[in-house]
Amino acid sequence: MHSPATLPDSPLVAPGSGWWAVCLCANWCGTCRDYRPLFDELARAHPQMRFVWVDIEDDAGLAGDLDVETFPTLLIADGTTARFLGPLLPQAPVLARLLASLQAAPHGGGAGGEAQAVFERVRAARSA
Question: Is the distance from CB of 74 to CB of 95 less than 8 angstroms?
């Protein structure tokens, strides 16, 4: 049996272009397992974006020192800058609204150094 983290992500987007939605979850978490099909559905609905599922235990190096306490935790980046990092209700419409509001806003501030470091590790690992 494969964990959700080993399933394919959405098609590659060149580093520095396009938006990324990174879900930081754990395979043991029932909420995460239930959320995965909704996350995948959003990926299919937004092919211009990169959706990545990261199991924080299987891919602990990507999460680094980030202490994920609430699942699911989402990291949203505009291709170069992490713009959001935090827990999110496990509902597709909530993520869709967040993505739309971040994309509609003029280039906003970043989500902080820790979020940026996680995004850079994910981008490097999943863009190769």
Answer: yes
pTM: 0.80
Which of 3, 79, 12 minimizes the C-alpha distance to 47? 12
Contacts of 76 (CB under 8 A, 6+ apart): 19, 20, 21, 22, 82, 83, 84, 85, 98, 99, 102, 111
pLDDT tens readout for residues 36-86: 999 999 899 889 899 999 998 888 888 877 778 888 899 999 988 999 999
50-55: strand order across its sheet: 50-55, 20-25, 73-77, 82-87
* Kind of pairing between the strands at 50-55 and 20-25: parallel
CB neighbours of 42 closer than 8 A, spacing ≥ 6? 21, 51, 92, 95, 96, 99
